[in-house]
Design a protein that fits this description.
InterPro entries: AB_hydrolase_fold (IPR029058), ABHD18 (IPR019149). This is Protein ABHD18. It is a single chain. By secondary structure, this protein is an alpha/beta fold. The chain is 45% helix and 13% strand. A seven-stranded mixed sheet has the order 1-2-3-5-4-6-7, sandwiched between helices. A two-stranded parallel ribbon has the order 8-9. Helix 5 crosses helix 18, helix 9 crosses helix 15 and helix 13 packs antiparallel against helix 14. The protein starts with a helix and ends with a helix.
Length: 446
């Protein structure tokens, strides 16, 4: 793996999931809704073809035309109560030519990678050059939790809860359908979708729910996010102690949520099912750790661990409030009472806690992000994947490949790590986009 990837991640101090997994009920809702998202026919019905979109600005900037617009995210109505208020309005920018040079009006939807807030980078590095080189326009969609859609108490790109990532993905799938339908109504096409890193993965999800042939160019992403957050360098950016302690205190994660995690209808083999092995094993691990606990010191031990974990929060102003709220949470869930003046030695095996949390992370990530749980895009021959040979962010070992998952697709490899490819290989990304669109035009629009 790229040493530069590893060094780069160490220089970034922000942490993810600093407030835990998310409310158990919210996770359950997402797992249930994932089954709908995983069925293209059912998902497509959630977004009417005439879904309202408002254009706020239409102006010329030099040699391009810029549109900006917004609409209410369909996710808000489909799964009420999960989206923070700031995320509910989807916002986008469109980069168009002054005049089209052919009867085709190709448009590529661009989804954001981790940390890609607002429109500037995608407009400058991809949209404008792509329009100039290949005549392909772009729609740049702002992700939930990013830019103008970022919750007020969230620091930069650091999602507070693991569940937030699943909300982001589900919202982007439905919002992409809104924009695809809007493009069709206004005579744009052929259509495609792309993104880099997390944006590439979200692009794959978006293409899975569109019921027509579409160009898909996922760059620096793969088939599941489980390896990203448990094996890749991003695993170093997760607040594991918070997740470990919350998992051990609230037994609903082990006793109830595991039963909502299902394997995809299509059996993908042992490499995929590895992510679900925790369903069979972690309950036993949890029970063994519980046998070693004594009611007299459980509360104080967990309070101490939670306090230390929350001291690492990026949002320093809320540290004390978080600690007190977690104290109340722990007392309520553990059922312990007393004056809590005596703190004994920890009865909980830290390694067991870590293993349980890691297994649970693999399971929930595979459940909500593994592409095997979603429909295969209508025409895989229009899929061109661009991957980095030495990617330390997106490990591909022991994970089913995209070529196997989507027979007919092709993978192009860059001899680079993740960060170097992100910074210096955008030409290859744009070439892949142009090639996929040309193939779509040849097959369906000539």
């Amino acid at each position: 793996m790229s040493r530069f990837d590893q060094l780069y991640r160490k220089l970034i101090v922000t942490k993810f999931f600093t407030r835990g997994w998310g409310e158990p009920e919210n996770l359950k809702k997402m797992f249930d809704f994932r089954k709908v998202l995983g069925n293209r026919d059912e998902c497509y019905k959630l977004v009417p073809p005439d879904y309202p979109v408002t254009i706020d600005k239409d102006e010329l900037q030099g040699d391009v035309r810029i549109l900006e617009g917004h609409f209410e995210s369909p996710f808000k109505k489909c799964v009420p109560g999960l989206m923070p208020k700031e995320t509910e309005t989807a916002r986008f920018q469109m980069v168009l030519p002054k005049e089209w040079k052919s009867h085709h009006k190709p448009v590529c939807l661009q989804l954001a990678g981790t940390g890609d807030h607002y429109y500037w980078r995608r407009r400058t590095v991809v949209a404008r050059p792509l329009l100039k080189e290949s005549g392909i326009a772009s729609i740049i969609l702002e992700s939930p939790y990013y830019g103008l859609r970022k919750p007020k108490r969230q620091l930069r790109s650091s999602l507070h809860y693991t569940c937030d990532l699943f909300v982001m993905g589900g919202a982007l799938m439905l919002e992409s359908l809104v924009l695809f339908n809007w493009c069709e109504r206004h005579g744009f096409g052929p259509l495609g979708v792309t993104g880099i890193s997390m944006g590439g993965f979200m692009a794959s999800l978006a293409a899975s729910v569109y019921p027509k042939p579409i160009s898909l160019i996922p760059c620096l992403s793969w088939t599941t996010a489980s390896t990203v957050f448990t094996k890749g360098v991003m695993s170093q950016a997760i607040s594991w102690k918070v997740l470990e302690n919350q998992y051990s205190v609230d037994t609903v994660y082990a006793d109830e949520i595991k039963h909502t995690l299902i394997s995809p209808e299509q059996v993908l083999g042992s490499t995929y099912n590895m992510g679900h092995e925790f369903v069979k094993t972690y309950s036993d691990k949890l029970e063994n750790s519980k046998l070693n606990q004594s009611p007299s010191n459980t509360e104080n031990t967990l309070k101490e661990r939670h306090s230390h974990a929350f001291i690492d929060h990026d949002d320093k102003m809320d540290v004390q409030a978080d600690i007190h709220s977690m104290e109340d949470y722990i007392v309520k869930k553990s059922g312990c009472k007393g004056d809590n003046k005596t703190v004994g030695k920890s009865p909980i095996d830290r390694k067991s806690l870590k293993d349980n949390a890691l297994d649970f992370m693999r399971g929930v990530m595979d459940e909500c992000t593994h592409l095997g749980n979603f429909s295969v895009p209508v025409d895989p021959s229009l899929i061109i994947i661009v991957a980095a040979n030495h990617d330390a962010y997106v490990p591909r070992t022991n994970v089913i490949s995209l070529e196997q998952l989507w027979p007919g697709s092709q993978v192009r490899y860059i001899d680079s790590g993740h960060i170097n490819a992100f910074l210096f290989h955008n030409v290859q990304f744009r070439h892949a986009i142009a090639d996929s669109f040309n193939e779509q035009i040849r097959k369906y629009h000539s």
